[in-house]
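In this supplementary section we document a worked example of the pipeline. Step one takes a protein sequence of length 506 as its only input; no multiple sequence alignment statistics are reported here. Step two produces a three-dimensional model, which step three serialises into structure tokens for compact storage. The input and output of this example are shown verbatim.
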Amino acid sequence: MKTLTVFLFFCVSSINMLSQNITNTLGTNGSFIIKDGANTFLTLDQLNGYLTLNSGVIFFGADRFLHNYGLSNTFMGINSGNFTMTGGYNTGFGRNSMYSNNSGYYNTALGYNSLFNNTTGYQNTAIGFKALTLNTTGIENTATGWASLYSNTSGNYNTATGSSSLFFNTNGYQNTSMGFKSLYYNTSGYNNTAYGYASLTSNSTGYENTASGFGSLFWNSEGIRNTAVGFQSLFLNTTGIENTAVGYQSLSSNTLGKYNTAVGFKSLNYNSTGEFNTASGLNSLYSNTTGFQNTASGNASLYFNTTGYSNTAIGNGAGRDITTGSNNTVIGFDAQVPNGAANNQVRIGNWDVTYSGVQVAWTITSDKRWKSDIKSSVLGLNFISKLNPVSYTRNNDEKKRIEYGLIAQEVEEVLEESGIENAGMLTIDDNGRYELRYNDLLAPMIKAIQELKSENEQLKNQIEEVLEIREQLSEIKILKEELIEQITQLKANNNIGEVKFSSLGK
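The serialised model returned by step three reads:
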């Protein structure tokens, strides 16, 4: 302050010595006054050291340095402001700050070349080296940081905080950026919000995006309505739209995919063009690339899915082994379908489940319209009679309750003996474990009952025939007995006649 006072003193003293109309006068109480006959230009109060410049401009060499030209304007710095402006209530600090201002008003510029090109823009605030340098007509912008909003010309209502934030913005509006090079390449995109180092850096025309975190939505150029929260979330997205990523590197590889939602560390990490996916949980849908319409909830759920679509997995590790299969439903901790590349499978629970119950009976679809190649079952009594019903206890059942059923490997042998291949009742999963669909035994059991019924009817007919024969034999026996009796009677009668005939001869 003392140096500035001495500098100003010598400046005005030099002016005084060269001027014939201004006289220096020692005022009362030791005040030093420079004035002409009607006006006091400068006063230096020796009692308190106050220096008062009532009118005029302070130059640094040939360049204007300190002045208040216009209405309620304040400018300090080499070539800050100008002497042709009509705008008022502006404040400029720093070399060339508000250099070109014409009718702009309520602007504040602090820093070298800040608001340098502003002509009619108003209510702008620029703090930092070259902040809002190229702004001409843009209004109500706030730029804080080295070259923040540097290229803005006509964009309005933007807020940039951080070195080079919104650097290339020209006419984009209502953008908010905070962090080094956040929204750096944005030109005409609007309603974007970026928080964090290099967040939304490559955005050019994309709009209504929100990015929070280091490198979030870094490569987004034209994508719209994306939300990325977390380190490098949606990092590679370029034109994908309406994606939501929350978590470290969530959806980080997405480029063109749209309508995806990823919540959790590296969820949907490798998704590139997949659409309509929802992943919730650490590493959920981690490997998905082009798969679509998948839903995964739980740590590492659907982890290895790449191109499979319309899968639903709920539970920690649920559906982890599904790779290219589609339309699978998996519910429960570490629940897995038998074949990760197959479609239309349902699994509820893992291998440790000891009880499964429902309030009502299961209903199984059986419409003829859903079936083809319908034939009469070749499995019947012969097949059923070869099965070996057993009792057993499950290894994971702490209560060691006795269960009744069949051994899948034994059923496989019987099927092979019966010449049956690719039977749906028997499944072997990717780990070589056997599963048996008991309801498929119903048809062979019905067939067996029908065969038994047929045999019973044959036996019944045979029995009826035997009974009829027995009845006939009984009747024949009766007739035989009657015949014998008659013959006996005839013999008896014949003997009597012979006796009488003998008597007459005598």
